[in-house]
Specification:
- There is one protein chain.
- This protein is of the alpha/beta class.
- It is about 45% helix and about 10% strand.
- An eight-stranded parallel beta barrel has the order 1-2-3-4-5-6-7-8, surrounded by six helices.
- Helix 4 packs parallel to helix 6 (about 125-140), helix 6 packs parallel to helix 7 and helix 15 packs antiparallel against helix 16 (about 325-340).
- The protein is globular, with a radius of gyration of 20 Å.
- It starts with 6 loop residues before the first helix and ends with a helix.
- The protein binds flavin mononucleotide.
């Protein structure tokens, strides 16, 4: 069958292309509502779910964690776990739900995750990660990828990272996202672990030199599309942006299709995005949801723009009130407009 007619191969090439710019998996942040808005901002970028643990899916049967809107494609499911058979079963559930990629979390440092022996602590067990990835690959046709750190604690990142990548890549896994700092497993909170261990972008760039055939994305501390483009120009295959994409979604995502993917520039304005969210909000309310579950992810839509603070204030004061609905969006937009100098 010709490649363009094979939906699996076609889907694989789309997801690899999309990985030039991705929005990081972020617990409690990149839920389906957040991803829906991000997709309105960029039709090309790859979106990641929050981490879903394989025990929650396989033993807990929490299949609702896999729900997503069809417009979210291309979208990757991030799994947490360290039991190969259980991860394979979870990956199968994810692929069956329609995800375009299954990603394994080898970067999260939280206590809860360490006690379940998954996340960043797995940087110490490349053999086990390779077993997990091999089992996941056997279970699904979509790509299986790994998001890792450069090392943990007192590991020598320079030695450990290439060994880790080589070991895991020996399974056939060919895409890695590297958060360019260590995780310190003792004494730092997960939040501190995203800021305090120093970033080492050069090490990630050197990995591309060592493994030119692998698709490598860099993550950590990237706050603009210019910075993202510079990493692509330096030879990396992808850039993953987390907090900046969440807090300034317009700055990171609205120009991404044009600047990172070479598409014709879209002319949308953040106001258009706010208005485009309304049918989605209406459907959510009809299904019994609450407004603030969506608007909490819309707070940053006007970040750094005139009226951005007023927008946040109107949404945060009104969205949790009983009966709050799309009228609040219109009200916030009208108040912003009224506050503009004539
Ligand atoms: C609120 C929050 C939740 C996160 N949850 C996850 C997660 O579920 N899985 C994961 O691999 N990383 C998680 N991360 C880490 C991000 O994916 C990313 O690696 C990190 O924030 C560094 O990228 P940045 O500097 O662009 O934000 C989380 C980060 C934040 C801020």
């Amino acid at each position: 069958m010709a490649e363009q007619e094979d939906p699996i191969k076609q889907g694989k090439s789309d997801v690899v292309r999309a990985a030039r710019l991705s929005v990081a998996p972020m617990m409690d942040w990149t839920d389906r509502h957040c991803r829906y808005m991000h997709r309105l901002l960029s039709s090309r970028s790859l979106l990641y779910t929050e981490m879903v643990t394989s025990p929650a899916l396989v033993r807990g049967g929490a299949l609702h964690l896999l729900d997503f809107h069809p417009d979210e494609h291309p979208v990757a499911l991030q799994l947490g776990g360290s039991d190969p058979a259980e991860l394979a079963a979870a990956a199968r559930l994810g692929a069956r739900a329609g995800y375009d990629e299954i990603n394994l979390n080898v970067g999260c440092p939280s206590d809860r995750v360490q006690s379940g022996t998954f996340g960043a602590i797995l940087m110490k067990q490349p053999g086990l990660v390779a077993e997990c990835v091999a089992a996941m690959q056997d279970a699904v046709a979509v790509p299986v990828t790994v998001k890792c750190r450069i090392g943990v604690d007192d590991q020598d990142a320079e030695g450990v990272l290439p060994e880790f990548i080589a070991r895991v890549a020996s399974t056939g896994c060919d895409r890695f996202i590297i958060h360019a700092r260590k995780a310190w497993l003792q004494g730092l909170s997960p939040k501190e672990n995203r800021d305090i261990p120093p970033l080492d972008y050069d090490l990630v760039l050197r990995m591309k030199g060592l493994f030119p055939a692998l698709h490598l994305s860099v993550n950590g501390g990237i706050t603009s599309l210019e910075q993202a483009q510079a990493f692509l120009d330096a030879g990396l295959d992808g850039v993953m942006v987390g907090r900046a994409a969440y807090h300034q979604p317009w700055d990171i995502l609205a120009q991404a299709d044009a600047r990172i993917f070479g598409e014709i520039a879209a002319t949308a304005d953040p106001v258009d995005i706010a208005l485009a969210m309304i049918p989605y909000i209406e459907a959510h309310l009809v299904a019994g949801g609450r407004l603030h579950q969506i608007t909490r992810h819309m707070m940053g839509l006007f970040a750094g723009r005139p009226g951005g603070r007023l927008w946040r204030r109107v949404l945060s004061e009104g969205a949790s009130k009983r009966g709050a609905g799309p009228a609040l969006i219109h009200q916030a937009l009208a108040r912003m407009q009224a506050a503009q100098p004539a």
